[in-house]
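Input C-alpha coordinates:
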Protein backbone atom coordinates (compact mmCIF):
# COMPACT_ATOMS: atom_id res chain seq x y z
CA UNK A 1 0.00 0.00 0.00
CA UNK A 2 1.34 3.39 -0.99
CA UNK A 3 0.30 6.94 -1.81
CA UNK A 4 -1.83 7.06 -4.93
CA UNK A 5 -3.45 3.65 -4.43
CA UNK A 6 -7.22 3.67 -4.96
CA UNK A 7 -9.74 2.04 -2.65
CA UNK A 8 -12.57 0.20 -4.39
CA UNK A 9 -15.76 2.27 -4.65
CA UNK A 10 -18.74 1.66 -2.37
CA UNK A 11 -22.23 2.48 -3.62
CA UNK A 12 -24.79 3.28 -0.93
CA UNK A 13 -28.47 3.56 -1.88
CA UNK A 14 -29.97 6.62 -0.19
CA UNK A 15 -33.32 5.44 1.08
CA UNK A 16 -35.85 7.37 3.10
CA UNK A 17 -35.32 4.83 5.89
CA UNK A 18 -31.54 5.43 5.90
CA UNK A 19 -31.99 9.20 6.10
CA UNK A 20 -34.55 9.05 8.92
CA UNK A 21 -32.83 6.24 10.85
CA UNK A 22 -29.48 8.05 10.68
CA UNK A 23 -31.04 11.23 12.02
CA UNK A 24 -32.79 9.40 14.85
CA UNK A 25 -29.68 7.38 15.75
CA UNK A 26 -27.63 10.57 16.00
CA UNK A 27 -30.43 12.36 17.91
CA UNK A 28 -30.82 14.96 15.17
CA UNK A 29 -34.54 15.68 15.26
CA UNK A 30 -34.52 18.60 12.82
CA UNK A 31 -37.62 18.24 10.66
CA UNK A 32 -35.65 18.48 7.39
CA UNK A 33 -34.30 14.98 8.12
CA UNK A 34 -37.65 13.25 8.63
CA UNK A 35 -40.64 15.35 7.49
CA UNK A 36 -40.83 15.81 3.71
CA UNK A 37 -43.58 18.43 3.83
CA UNK A 38 -41.77 20.63 6.35
CA UNK A 39 -38.52 20.18 4.38
CA UNK A 40 -40.33 21.45 1.25
CA UNK A 41 -41.72 24.41 3.19
CA UNK A 42 -38.12 25.29 4.06
CA UNK A 43 -37.03 25.17 0.41
CA UNK A 44 -35.72 21.62 0.06
CA UNK A 45 -37.27 19.23 -2.49
CA UNK A 46 -37.31 16.43 0.13
CA UNK A 47 -35.73 15.32 3.40
CA UNK A 48 -31.94 14.99 3.27
CA UNK A 49 -29.17 13.14 5.09
CA UNK A 50 -27.53 14.78 8.10
CA UNK A 51 -23.77 15.19 8.53
CA UNK A 52 -23.52 12.64 11.35
CA UNK A 53 -24.95 9.90 9.12
CA UNK A 54 -22.52 10.89 6.37
CA UNK A 55 -19.66 10.82 8.88
CA UNK A 56 -20.65 7.30 9.94
CA UNK A 57 -20.82 6.10 6.34
CA UNK A 58 -17.37 7.53 5.62
CA UNK A 59 -16.01 5.71 8.68
CA UNK A 60 -17.71 2.50 7.57
CA UNK A 61 -16.15 2.83 4.11
CA UNK A 62 -12.66 3.05 5.61
CA UNK A 63 -13.09 0.25 8.18
CA UNK A 64 -14.77 -2.03 5.63
CA UNK A 65 -11.65 -1.66 3.51
CA UNK A 66 -8.95 -1.88 6.20
CA UNK A 67 -10.67 -4.35 8.51
CA UNK A 68 -12.02 -4.48 12.06
CA UNK A 69 -8.64 -3.83 13.75
CA UNK A 70 -8.25 -0.48 11.96
CA UNK A 71 -8.65 2.49 14.31
CA UNK A 72 -10.05 5.75 12.98
CA UNK A 73 -7.87 8.56 14.32
CA UNK A 74 -9.30 11.59 12.52
CA UNK A 75 -12.23 12.18 10.19
CA UNK A 76 -12.40 15.64 8.62
CA UNK A 77 -15.26 16.05 6.15
CA UNK A 78 -17.14 18.83 4.39
CA UNK A 79 -20.64 18.49 2.96
CA UNK A 80 -21.69 19.69 -0.48
CA UNK A 81 -24.69 18.50 -2.52
CA UNK A 82 -27.42 16.98 -0.33
CA UNK A 83 -28.18 13.25 -0.27
CA UNK A 84 -31.89 12.86 -1.07
CA UNK A 85 -33.90 9.63 -0.93
CA UNK A 86 -34.02 7.77 -4.23
CA UNK A 87 -30.42 8.61 -5.15
CA UNK A 88 -27.24 6.75 -4.33
CA UNK A 89 -23.87 7.92 -3.11
CA UNK A 90 -20.64 6.38 -4.39
CA UNK A 91 -17.72 6.66 -2.00
CA UNK A 92 -14.21 6.54 -3.43
CA UNK A 93 -10.85 6.88 -1.74
CA UNK A 94 -7.24 7.57 -2.59
CA UNK A 95 -4.37 6.90 -0.22
CA UNK A 96 -2.49 10.16 0.31
CA UNK A 97 0.13 9.08 2.82
CA UNK A 98 1.40 5.97 4.63
CA UNK A 99 3.65 6.34 7.67
CA UNK A 100 5.28 3.34 9.33
CA UNK A 101 5.19 3.79 13.10
CA UNK A 102 6.10 1.55 16.03
CA UNK A 103 2.51 0.54 16.75
CA UNK A 104 1.45 0.19 13.10
CA UNK A 105 0.97 2.04 9.87
CA UNK A 106 -0.85 5.37 9.86
CA UNK A 107 -2.70 5.90 6.60
CA UNK A 108 -4.36 9.09 5.35
CA UNK A 109 -7.10 8.58 2.79
CA UNK A 110 -8.77 11.27 0.68
CA UNK A 111 -12.48 10.41 0.46
CA UNK A 112 -15.12 11.68 -1.98
CA UNK A 113 -18.79 10.73 -1.94
CA UNK A 114 -20.74 11.71 -5.05
CA UNK A 115 -24.42 11.48 -5.97
CA UNK A 116 -26.43 12.43 -9.06
CA UNK A 117 -26.25 16.17 -8.33
CA UNK A 118 -22.59 16.44 -7.32
CA UNK A 119 -20.15 15.82 -4.51
CA UNK A 120 -21.98 15.15 -1.28
CA UNK A 121 -18.88 14.79 0.89
CA UNK A 122 -15.15 15.41 0.59
CA UNK A 123 -12.49 15.02 3.21
CA UNK A 124 -9.69 13.00 4.71
CA UNK A 125 -9.59 10.11 7.13
CA UNK A 126 -6.56 9.10 9.16
CA UNK A 127 -6.52 5.49 10.27
CA UNK A 128 -4.01 3.39 12.20
CA UNK A 129 -3.46 -0.21 11.14
CA UNK A 130 -1.89 -2.34 13.88
CA UNK A 131 1.30 -4.25 13.20
CA UNK A 132 0.70 -7.80 12.05
CA UNK A 133 1.16 -10.34 14.82
CA UNK A 134 4.11 -12.72 14.34
CA UNK A 135 3.12 -15.66 12.12
CA UNK A 136 -0.13 -13.84 11.33
CA UNK A 137 0.33 -11.51 8.34
CA UNK A 138 -2.02 -8.61 7.81
CA UNK A 139 -4.84 -9.55 5.46
CA UNK A 140 -4.10 -8.06 2.03
CA UNK A 141 -6.73 -5.99 0.26
Amino acid sequence: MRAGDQLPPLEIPITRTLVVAGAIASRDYQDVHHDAELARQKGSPDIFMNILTTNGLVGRYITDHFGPRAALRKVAIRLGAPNYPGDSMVLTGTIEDVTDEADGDTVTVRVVGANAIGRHVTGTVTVTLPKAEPNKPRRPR
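The chain has a mean pLDDT of 91. The beta strands are 6-13, 71-79, 88-101, 104-115, 118-130.
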